Amino acid sequence: MSPILFWIFVAVMLFFGGMVVLNRSPVGSALSLVVSFLALAALYVSLDAYFIGVIQILVYAGAVMVLFLFIIMLLDLRAESRRRVNFPAVCGGFVVIILFIKVLSEVCYSFEGGNAKFPPISQGPQGDVWHVGMILFQQYNVPLQVVGTLILVASIGVVILSKRVLK
Amino acid sequence: MAYTISRPKLNFAEKVYLPAIITGLGITIRHFINIVTGKTKVTMQYPEEKWDKKLPPYYRGAPTLVKDEYGRERCVACQLCEFICPPRAITIHAGEIPEKDRWRKVEKFPKEFEIDMIRCIYCGLCEEVCPEQAIFLRKDYAITGLTRQEMVHNKEKLYELGGVMTGLVYKWNDKK
Amino acid sequence: MIITIVVSLAKAIGLIFLIILPMVSYTVYAERRVSAMIQDRIGPNRVGIPLTLFGFPKDIPFYGLVQPIADAVKLLLKEDFTPAHVNKLYYWLAPACAMAPSMMALAVIPFGSQLWGEPMVVANVDVGVLWVFAVSSLGVYGIVLAGWSSNSKYPFLGGIRSSSQMISYELSLALSVIPIFMVCGTLNLPDIVKYQIDHGWLISPIWIKGISLFPPGINFQEIWRSIDILKIILWIPLFISFIVFVISMFAETNRLPFDLPEAETELVGGYHTEYSSMKFALFFLGEYAAMIAGAAVIVTLFFGAWHVPFLPTTLHNPYTVWGVLLGLIHITAFFVKVALLLFFFIWVRWTLPRFRYDQLMRLGWYFFIEIALVNVFIVAIILPFVPK
After folding, report:
1. Which residue of A23, A119, A123, C233 could cross-link A28, Cys pair, CB 3.0 to 4.6 Å?
2. B30 and chain C in contact, CB less than 8 A
3. Do A63 and C144 touch (CB under 8 A)?
4. What ipTM was assigned to the predicted interfaces of this complex?
5. A99 with A135, same domain?
6. Which pLDDT tens digit goes with each residue over A93-134?
7. Domain shared by A114 and A126, yes or no
């Protein structure tokens, strides 16, 4: 992917990431987050990680954010849009951001591996889905099963808790 | 007293819906095939086929005025139709028949006779009430116009639509 | 580089403007016509070539086939009315959000074999089906935004219904295609099509190989070898997943019997109640484009996409007239299959009544997800015994 596209997607992602915080209407924030996710997915695709990119759209933009939006719409939050800007808090926020960027850059440049170039991803006849599958089900098979069981237990727990009458 | 409606007990085939859905699909496709193969009768395709020929003799179309074979206009401007008309579609301005005229004894004739076809409800009461057999509902049903003025039938138009009707009672003729 | 971009653009534009958009408008025509015929009426059969406008005595009715153009002109010329109480930005954004995803989903569909050596798929990516699901799951935003920004109760209810319905049925939609990936061993749609060409369409239990029309000949040994009892056993779970997938697709595209987001009898017009003119038309087009995209996915996954049985899939030289002709036949075959499925969609719509909302949710969460999940396990059990 050409660098122009990279910068476009980065700009879109950062702009809408900022809009998540700055936007006063909750629905606007949620939708900004969706656009930010889409741009992030585009960046994943630019790294040839199609699977991660598509899963990013499918899970976060397509399912999680829809649920968020659903709940925001049902709650009908109006208080947020009436709130006044708290000037000292905004200044404090900017100070924190600047300090964070400072610390991050210090760490990155002092760290040896931070400057290292990654080798290009080997493009076999199999797609990246195949690679992800192989790694998940061979190298990390046991953790995957454990996580799967955990999620199963959690979902069963949700079903039981959401039943009104426990017998 | 409240009472519970007993729900029918469904067997497995009814519970999974699919057999019923397939039966339903069968019914609709049968209707579809029947109309494609031309077995289903559909409504008359109006502008191409008209039902002029199939109109029954008692059909009530547009009201018209008629003349008889002697060329006399039948209407004597008695205004009974004007009074009976439920939507008050008829307006008659009566005039006097001049002294020298052959039909002097009739005394009145309609100077102006207007039927507002926007108001007319085609009830046929005017025809029924007419003592002179002057107004008849004919078989014209497609009365259209682009303006309101066009939809008001004046005397000429009514006679044009009505034409000459024969075989009526001639009660104003000279005694033989 | 430039040539690749030009070719991709040509494919995308050709697919959308030459095939999909006309197909959308003629699906609307077919919907009206088929519904009329199912109800013993005739339907729109008047709009043809208006020769009377040019002074000829008679029009050519042409079975009403020009009706979609008349509809489009009508929708374009209508007043584009924006109510005062709406949230303008999202109100304007929503129709585009409803239309775009279904078009994007078509990018990965292999709609033909090849023309002049160029494979007929806009984007041949490895994540094929996942891309379709990802993009079609974005389609809900258009509906939700329309419902929310209209600031009116019926659109809002429609938007809420639609979002919960789409989330629920996406699960069974995604789960029901997992058996296909397990059988084919790939997510890439052209590869799935190739698998189906080699091993038979996934919808058919038996696949007779060894008969070909060009050159004509029957190879009895190969026919005998191609019949396999294990494959017939494997067909059962695949057929179940076909049924689950098709029904979920009905729910996903808001078609009857799952058209609760726009149930006219309850919600006036549903999420597009407040819309008029071309904005309404975009919702309408988006809905039918989603239907076409859904049908295209079903055709690709289960009906062998562009494959025509007994015809060769490629020629040695694709640049000859016969090669091009074969490519065109394959594209035609794909869209004929899509059209037949669309007919099925329409047929079902005019047969079944609408579900109640709790029934819809119950069906999705209690039955389809479970059936799809169990189906995955059944395929996993059978698959090791099936010879590759």
Report:
1. A23
2. no
3. no
4. 0.77
5. no
6. 889 999 999 998 888 777 666 566 666 656 566 667 777 788
7. no
